[in-house]
Design brief:
Shape: elongated
Low-confidence stretches: 1-35
Number of strands: 13
Number of helices: 15
Radius of gyration: 36 Å
Mean pLDDT: 81
Largest sheet: 8 strands, mixed
CATH architecture of the largest domain: Alpha-Beta Complex
Structural class: alpha/beta
Helix content: 40-55%
Strand content: 15-25%
CATH superfamily of the largest domain: 2-enoyl-CoA Hydratase, Chain A, domain 1
Distance between the termini: 129 Å
CATH class of the largest domain: Alpha Beta
Order of helices and strands: HEHEHEHEEHHEHEHEHHHHHHHEEEEE
Length: about 450
Amino acid sequence: MRMKMKRMPFLTAVSLALAVCMPAAASSGNDVHADSVETVLYRIRLDADIDKAAERLVTRGLERAEDAGADYVLLDLNTYGGAVDAADGIRTAILKCPVPVVAFVNLQAASAGALISIACDSIYMKPGSSIGAATVVDQTGTVMPDKYQSFMRAMMRSTAEVNGRDPALAESMVDTADVLSLTPEEAVGAGFCEGVCIDVDEVARKVTGGAYRIEEMKMSWIDRLVQILLNPFLQSIFLMMIIGGIYVEIRTPGIGLPLLTAVMGALLYFAPLYVENLAQNWEILLFIIGLVLIGLEIFVFPGFGVSGVTGIISVILALVFAMVDNRLIFDGSGSVDLKPVLMPVAIVVISAFVGLVGGVMLVKRLYTTRSFDTIALRKSLDEADGYVGVPPVDDSLRGKEARVFADMMPSGKVICEGRIYEATMTYGFATKEESVRIVRVEQGRLYCEKLV
């Protein structure tokens, strides 16, 4: 017992020494580990026109970078511009991204590309590159009216202000009289660019200042196929297939190629939008409900009323909202931004009109040719095959009374002088066993009125 008590001071001293030394060793180990940690840069290549496909590419890349825990997003940019609405969508996604975004202007950042670059936290440019020339033009290169330029100037100013860049310099890139473009040296001198780099590795070294690792955004074949199908031109074709196919199918007997065309158009239109989380379940359901209502209006309810109008509105709304990212409309602040809806509405309306006109022309042109038999059912009821026409009805039945054989709502059947005839009420309805008066006879059909 005495021996154990003598050893206690020694063990206590050893324990205290270890307790003092361990924090120092642990701190030293952490420092070594920290020095060896690589900064991860997630690289997104944007080397195409700015359209909806490019918008989805960048948006998806920013989401993946955040999910992967990347320290920076490296946007490798080389574009001459494109659609303003798609560029605004990319700008919004960059500004909302919690991961710092570094733009590397790899030759060109013109027009919409300039707006995207300014939205990034820092900009580096390659020797020989340029940034600017953001004047809004149409498809032919014609300068758009001043209201479009005013909108673009405001976006350029506000985006530059967010990242501490000169808003007046950004606005001058939209000037229609003396539009501004900057070389790398000019951009650095104006404080618009952080530096000039020959490649992405030099950008990574300047940003990180130490060890780094660049992760490339990889696209699967499904991603690439979805990107292709999201092209606005193809989306317009799919819309024309839907509208035109439905019209031709309604106007022709049987079920044939027009219905198959409409179904294929709907699948090609909704599938990529659903994969990209643009088309929601309720939007697809709204589209189906709209088709059902239109079908009821055509085949069940006479005339053109509430069912048909509601069906058309449902189909149009479903096609429009399936094309729009709902997050851009409802930004969580309680306000609603309808600007992202304008372009999809224009695409749907124009495509629907073209598809409808195309369907009308197709029916008129093909109906008299043999080619029509390959896309729709057409059968002539020849007398040689046993088909007979409606036998003539004696006009002497006019003014006589008849008894309703089948409810007339307004068409049905009546019995007159022991014979059953097809009949129609001139107005109102008549139920079975009611008495009616025949007021006229036309093309083998009796037209009746209720007895007063």
